[in-house]
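Figure 2 data, in text form.
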Amino acid sequence: MNMQHVQPIEIKVPDRASMDRCITVAVDRMIESARGQRTHGILVIRLGDGHFVVGLSKAVPFGHTDQLDLRRQTA
């Protein structure tokens, strides 16, 4: 499978229970895709409250899942 054709999955959810369930499903789908070439790991990016993107990343080693929180930090 060509990694260029694996689209990231955007998630927007209203509550914690939905968040956990949707992220788990998205990560499971990315695991299936990553197994094809064994060169990319999975990156979960939090863009805001209830807003995430799950995708493959060459910056994350195969077999690993990493997370990045890009929410604005308030002082």
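Caption note: The two ends are 44 Å apart (CA to CA).
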